């Protein structure tokens, strides 16, 4: 399991430790750890190091690390990028023989552009957790100036990224990011994680704050969360999932959803839908039963188009939404919810569906602005949070990194899972995900865990279905049960 902590909580935790230590000790630990990683990455293959040092403590870490590297006989150039710099760090670097250049505004000078183009290692210490999203104006073209062969090592976070991981912005793209004791949201959130590269946590003895901001389950975590049946269980006690999906037109979506739910071991599936998908399911998933009946949770909406749905489907869906049972709403099912329910609710939109839902319910940003394509693109998890708050529901926003956002009042962490190959971006994959998450809701998991664990299993199943190559959704649905078996077999830490 990985955990990330809010920037304010990290600052408070660091401050408490710093107060107990001699002046500068915490930064010394950070800089030593950073220099050690930098040396390891350089190996024997290079000696030209450019250290970019900004105005804050992040720049201080980088300058102290520059001093340590210069002591190792490397060719180290430090570029000061802000209006000021960490004085202790600058003195250490100068004293160790680091060559200092300035790029405080305007275009970079020739010495800086030449060094960046030829560097073997670039250490990015421009901005850390004190950074606002976006690179400083004069550094906008910096990513283009770094030579293609350079290994880019970011200090704490790639400069330009939003430390909270909420706002998409221009930034450095790192090969590796070294952070200190505590991961921050920037490292795990979908808008910023792609810029982080490999994440290395150097321990500087700062303890975890109490509140977790972002959490990610590892494969090993699944065994402790999965509803494994006991000897006294029967199909009803294990959970029956009602599925209202598909129609005369979209017959495949229910096949994907019901297959996935059955293969991951739900007690039983009851399917409600018109003739064409019902006939297909009778052939393809003979384990399913048909028509209404008692269920422990509902999965509603995959391949369901409201205008084309049967009157039975619309009636059953409306009753389910009005009930006190857990309900998952996917795709067309998202068009059926008008306000908060009084029972566990998991919404599983992709970005386009989330935008449509936010517009339909006239959900506004905190400043009153309407939610549009631009806001959705720049701040997807913020929009998910606004929808979660309005509907008192958990929102699973699909993507290469899937986020599971709960209402703010719940104080639950955001879960982000990045387990699937990019091949998973294929029609029907979301229907299989709805089946897996629905099975977990029926098995008694709360929506945030059903969403996060479901996304993990879905990603692993896609990986296993055809390792390294394209996958079709039905194969993901078929593989999901074997993926669960594999995850349950992993040794526990
Ligand atoms: N606390 C500890 O004990 C330890 C801390 N450690 C390290 O400290 C780092 C945090 O340091 P920090 O607080 O000094 O913040 P940091 O990001 O370096 O600089 C902020 C400065 O940048 C400026 N600025 C911001 N955004 C900007 C923008 N877009 N464009 C232009 N300017 C912008 C901002 O200006 P202002 O907001 O005042 O306008 C301010 O001057 C942390 O990430 C870790 O590496 C380690 O040593 C371990 C021990
Ligand atoms: N680039 C990507 N990399 C990995 N997984 C992705 C990517 N894009 C989408 N996915 C996953 O693929 C699935 C697509 O779901 P969805 O868009 O609802 O498709 P459909 O409605 O056709 O079933 C989701 O689980 C999503 O998380």
From TrEMBL:
Pfam families assigned: Carb_kinase, YjeF_N
GO molecular function: ADP-dependent NAD(P)H-hydrate dehydratase activity; ATP binding; kinase activity; metal ion binding; NAD(P)HX epimerase activity
Domain of life: Bacteria
Protein's GO biological process: metabolite repair; nicotinamide nucleotide metabolic process
Binding site for AMP: 398-402, 430
CC cofactor: Mg(2+); K(+)
Keywords: ATP-binding, Isomerase, Kinase, Lyase, Metal-binding, Multifunctional enzyme, NAD, NADP, Nucleotide-binding, Potassium, Transferase
Domain YjeF N-terminal: start-end pairs: 5-212
InterPro entries membership: CARKD (IPR000631), Nnr (IPR030677), Ribokinase-like (IPR029056), YjeF_N_dom (IPR004443), YjeF_N_dom_sf (IPR036652)
Binding site residues for (6S)-NADPHX: 253, 303, 350, 431
Co-factor note (free text): Binds 1 potassium ion per subunit.
Catalytic activity: (6S)-NADPHX + ADP = AMP + phosphate + NADPH + H(+); (6R)-NADHX = (6S)-NADHX; (6S)-NADHX + ADP = AMP + phosphate + NADH + H(+); (6R)-NADPHX = (6S)-NADPHX
Subunit relationships: Homotetramer.
Family designation: In the N-terminal section; belongs to the NnrE/AIBP family. Belongs to the NnrD/CARKD family.
Function (record text): Bifunctional enzyme that catalyzes the epimerization of the S- and R-forms of NAD(P)HX and the dehydration of the S-form of NAD(P)HX at the expense of ADP, which is converted to AMP. This allows the repair of both epimers of NAD(P)HX, a damaged form of NAD(P)H that is a result of enzymatic or heat-dependent hydration. Catalyzes the dehydration of the S-form of NAD(P)HX at the expense of ADP, which is converted to AMP. Together with NAD(P)HX epimerase, which catalyzes the epimerization of the S- and R-forms, the enzyme allows the repair of both epimers of NAD(P)HX, a damaged form of NAD(P)H that is a result of enzymatic or heat-dependent hydration.
Name of the protein described by the UniProt record: ADP-dependent (S)-NAD(P)H-hydrate dehydratase
Organism lineage string: Bacteria, Bacillati, Actinomycetota, Actinomycetes, Micrococcales
